[in-house]
Design a protein that fits this description.
With 639 residues, the chain is α+β, with helices and mostly antiparallel strands. Helices cover 50% and strands 18% of the residues. Helix 12 (389-402) packs antiparallel against helix 13 (407-423) and helix 20 (541-553) runs antiparallel to helix 21 (557-570). The longest helix is centred in the first third of the chain and has 30 residues, at 28-57. The model is unreliable at 1-11 and 183-241 (pLDDT under 50).
Length: 639
């Protein structure tokens, strides 16, 4: 390497920009305490068979060793990452036939930074950041800085899972960290030095593969262990691939009921729902919506199946059993690519401790995924809507009825929400649930006085906001209310507030897409609606209708037709889908198909007219409504 005069530092030292790799053995002290001779022998064997050949092949210079760690410099970040992957591959294969508590496992951190070179050693923030990244890496994985990531992102077949901007010890600025996941080309790579022909892999005595926390064990597996494990999350749903998000992604399943009491069933669902709600408030995470994860209720769902169908890496599952005033809850967080448990815990608590227990589970999940929270984010997780267990369960039960969208269920949902309000008059979620029953009643035409129902919904929603101005569902509800009274700008402000408070809120994403379409911004609505579908891969059918509406307004009539046909496969009698289908087919010039769709729509609604259709729409711009009306007029819907 050549140096210019700008490389010269004080005292004769040199400065240069290099790629720094820091590696460390997980659980080294414990291993040495258990069997010092075997541990040192295992490390020497790995150096000879895996690490040193990888350094030579990828042009790495070993700066120094520190007993359980190594510091290496490279002139290229690409070489550094290739070396790190070969290193972790080789160690993982060497460990295949070794007992889990005797495996040597490394963490690796890679950074691109300026260093001071002195007497063959390197120092400075560039090295310090690499060391902190190593400590952030999960055992068996590589953690890379953003500066390094930017150098390799288009040069190697790897994926990066963002760990967010993390505050690390002795580094003033936040460090953008990424977990590296190799693609198929690198996973298929062979090991140097004829490793698989060697008997050395059978003789390694090695380190524990576990990181202990105060509340449970974290067990991690290298994400490149086998092709099959990675392929389990490269899936297709409804004909579209669901790649893993850049953020840590999770699905929280309803907790299984192990008791005979029906309240156990409600307790497990309410617990899972509140954990989803708490995790959804974190911008560092990608959280699948309740209406998708709760489709697995009562099923013996395989974690890999859930991961494949929902497109997530992590799954939280558990069970609940109540006995009088006592409750036992088991919870476990699983890496679906490997099937290994990252964290698990059994809680035996008083039933009145359920709210604190819920927070403990949520925070343990966040800790296991190495997400660093601000004090404000922790406070939002611990934010308590009610301390009344009965009111909490009633609100959860009310939601179940709301999601069935029948007149009878809506009435039952209202009754349950009213009871919750009586039990705790300061419970904002209970008012939101109650307000939603009036909005559904208004929108569905189930009342002789729709204006009164709408006014009551607004009153209740505003009261909920007064009780807690940081509850996301209040703003989600207000966004729909404002749209229905043609206050489009207020609707958009409300839905943006909902998403600021809960970035993974799929229903608010869908509301935003709907508001954009009705506001004359259908082109912008399409990607937003697709984001809502990604957050809830098993999404409500109305997501499809809103996507079709956006396609229609942008002139993509055939796309609208295909989406509406998918909706009608799920619900052949959907009036909303049928009349939109008639309009889309009419605009596409498929008049006979459009007339057939309209006839099917009119069978249970023989007196329906264009005037009635227009009354139920909320377009800001008259020409957008006219576009639909003209299409329906063309196929014979009367004025």
């Amino acid at each position: 390497m050549t140096h210019t005069s700008s490389d010269l530092a004080g005292g004769g030292a040199l400065r240069r920009l290099v790629a720094i790799l820091v590696a460390d053995v997980v659980g080294y002290s414990r291993l040495m305490g258990a069997d010092e001779e075997a541990t040192l022998s295992a490390l020497r064997a790995l150096r000879t068979a895996v690490i040193d050949p990888a350094l030579t092949k990828h042009h790495g210079r070993l700066v120094k060793t520190t007993g359980d760690g190594l510091l290496v410099e490279f002139t290229s970040v690409v070489d550094a990452l290739r070396c790190g992957i070969a290193w972790q591959q080789g160690v993982a294969r060497a460990n295949v036939d070794i007992a889990q508590d005797r495996r040597v496992v490394f963490r690796i951190g890679i950074n691109l930074g300026d260093v001071i070179v002195e007497d063959g050693d390197i120092h400075g923030d560039g090295v310090n950041v690499a060391a902190r990244l190593e400590s952030l890496a999960r055992p068996g994985t590589i953690c890379i800085s953003r500066a390094a990531r930017d150098q390799v992102r288009d040069k190697l077949p790897v994926q990066f899972e963002s760990l967010g901007a993390l505050h690390v010890k002795n580094i003033a600025r936040p460090v953008q960290a990424f977990l590296v996941t190799p693609g198929a080309d690198l996973r298929a790579g062979t090991l140097p030095g004829g490793w698989m022909r060697s008997r050395l892999g059978l003789s390694l005595a090695v380190a524990a593969f576990a990181v202990m926390t105060a509340s449970g064990a974290l067990v991690w597996l290298a994400p490149w262990a086998t092709v099959a494990e990675r392929d389990a999350v490269e899936v297709r749903l409804h004909g579209s691939a669901l790649p893993l998000p850049d953020l840590p992604s999770i699905a929280v399943l309803p907790f299984d009921n192990l008791g005979a009491d029906v309240q156990d069933h409600r307790l497990g669902e309410a617990l899972a729902e509140n954990i989803i709600s708490s995790l959804s408030k974190l911008p560092q995470m990608f959280v699948i919506a309740r209406n998708s994860t709760f489709t697995y209720k009562g099923q013996a769902a395989m974690v890999q199946k859930v991961s494949k169908e929902l497109g997530v890496r992590y799954v939280l599952e558990g069970s609940v059993q109540q006995a009088g005033a006592k409750v036992r809850i088991n919870a476990q967080l699983i890496d679906a690519m490997s099937g290994f448990h990252l964290w698990s815990e059994t809680y035996d608590r008083e039933i009145d401790d359920i709210f604190a227990l819920q927070d403990d589970i949520t925070l343990n999940v966040v800790t296991a995924l190495q997400i660093e929270l601000t004090q404000g984010e922790v406070a939002r997780i611990r934010q308590r809507g009610t301390h009344n267990l009965r009111a909490w369960l009633l609100v959860n039960q009310s939601f179940e009825h709301l999601m069935r969208f029948t007149k009878q269920d809506n009435a039952q949902a209202r009754k349950l929400a009213e009871e919750a309000v009586e039990l705790d008059p300061n419970y904002p979620e209970a008012y939101v649930r109650l307000a939603r029953t009036y909005l559904i009643e208004f929108h569905s035409g189930w009342t002789a006085n729709p204006d009164a129902a709408l006014r009551r919904s607004i009153e209740l929603a505003q009261h909920a906001r007064k009780l807690d101005d940081a509850y996301p569902d209040t703003y989600h509800l207000l966004s729909a209310i404002y749209l229905f009274v043609n206050r489009h700008d207020d609707a958009m402000l409300a839905v943006k507030k909902a998403l600021d408070l809960s970035p993974s809120h799929s229903l608010s994403k869908a509301n935003m897409g709907m508001i954009l379409t009705y506001s004359g911004e259908a082109e912008a609505a399409i990607p937003v609606l697709k984001e809502a579908m990604r957050l809830s891969p098993i999404y409500p059918d109305w997501f499809l209708s809103e996507l079709a509406r956006a396609y229609f307004q942008t002139g993509r009539f055939e796309d609208a037709v295909q989406v509406l046909k998918r909706h009608l496969e799920n619900d052949p009698r959907s009036g909303e889908a049928l009349i939109l289908l008639a309009a889309a087919q009419s605009s596409a010039g498929r008049l006979s198909d459009a007339k057939a769709a309209l006839a099917k729509f009119l069978e249970p609604r023989p007196a329906y007219t264009l005037r009635l259709y227009a009354r139920g729409e909320f377009y800001k711009n008259p020409e957008d409504l006219d576009r639909v009306l003209d299409a329906l007029r063309k196929v014979g819907l009367p004025e």
